[in-house]
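Marked as duplicate of an earlier ticket. Keeping the data here for the record.
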Amino acid sequence: MKKIISVILTVILVLSSVSVAAFAAEKDDLKIAVASDLHYNVPREELEGNPDQPMEIDDPIYWYANRRAAMEDESGFIIDEFLRQCAEDDSIEYVLIPGDLADNGRVVREEHIAVAAKLKAFEEATGKDVFVINGNHDASLNNDDTTFEDFMAYYADFGWDKAIDTLDDTCSYTADLGEKYRLIALDSCHANYSTEDGMTTQKVNWVVDMAEKAVSEGRHPILMMHHNLLDHMPLQRILSRNFIIRNHTITADKFANAGIKVVFSGHEHCSDGAVYISSAGNKIYDFATTSLTMYPLQYRVFTFNEDKIDYEARTVDSIDLDALTSTVNGYSAEQLELMEAGLNAYAKGFLKAGVEYRLALGFTMEKMGIDEDAIYFDLVNSVIGKLTNALEAPLYGEGSISEQMKKYGFTIPESEYENGWDLATDLVAAHYEGEEVYPLEGEAVTILLRTVAFILREELSYLSGDMLTASADSMIADNGLTQYKPELKEMGSTAFGGGISPLEYFVVALLAPLLFTFANDADGVPDNNGSLEGYGAVTSKSKLDNIAEKFRNFFEKIGMYIRMFFDIIAKIGQ
């Protein structure tokens, strides 16, 4: 009998130890929500068009959209719903916000006061800590009302009150997250100039020191900053250079080798994951999170443990409409019905209207950055107006673009797009929502290229093939796309069903910045939902594998540069 009791007690002890171990492992996990670029605006009393826009938006539903496509009047209610979801999910322990908490925070203090009040109420109700860092919309030293000191005072309870280390004359600080992780919140903003990063050698060295200190104390460092550390589109360093920090690959190498694996950033308003492999074979991932108050109204949830890091995108799809309408007058019954049916779909329509407005305004030689001495200036200037108007024409049906095309042997695939603008703004929306679903050889790109080629067919008929080709080559070079020329020609050949004529090549060159910016994402990291190795999973073997992968990527780039070199040699010999 004693032996039986002894066996039973042994089993109980073993099971208890297993349960305790499982519980301990579970407690070691860290689960956080990340929402960026809240861009809170004090809601207006009456819904109206934006007085800062030179013309009104012609849309029965989204007439009050703005060129930034930000849902300003609804912003506070979207933030409220995000915080409600975080409060409802008991597994979320912390909330991180990498900048731009207020839209006009540099000059409108009331916006910061309102956001801070929302965050304070959340913390008091849930016991969950919020950590923030400043963005370029939040503060500056450029004679604005909100200085960096003011910003830290407004949000003193959201990071700085728990700070372990700080960096003088910046908003940077470190703080512990749970028992195994340490947050490094980096002020990446310029003291005076909006948008531009303010990275300095001092800031880079401080991050490295703080990461190494965390590792020495047995903690895994996580970095949060407003500006992007890595490219989040193929041409970000060229087309959106102020959104990514300067010397970013050198800095990423230092950060990765100091022990940082995960970076949270914002600023670009896109949902995108990117990876860099350091010289020592360490991987560092930069997860840019889109603006919470702009389509797709999205935030991220990360779960950390030693072996892996899981992440998912979550969406705000409803708000308190009673609270909205009691604050802002002027919403129509149809607008409210659409919001009730699904706020995310409503936000996409809002974004498409705002983006179309912005792109239409941007179709000028000045806004496109085309100098008068460019060889293709007169050519592009002559077609821009015609192209803008034609994008409004229906793609299908009687008298449509597709019907007119047939007379000249052109065809486009059937789709649900109403017109060219509908298609172009969908490409932009795909960049914001992540997991771009428009491959360069796909149907949507084919429709856009063929439509524009048809529109310009008569306008450019007087030009020789040599002139069109030379203009296209010059545009590609000026946009920093020379190394992508083989891919561009292949894309054009696929879209136009075989060879590519000088006119078609010109169209590809004209639209290349749009397509490479918004429709192409080939970095190999899932943007919205995925899993990657945990901080404790790195081994010597995986580092060797990482280095091999780095060399493969390096030689692929060398191949592109060699092709580019021979292109230049060929031009010289012509």
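See parent ticket for discussion. The chain has two domains: 21-346, 363-523.
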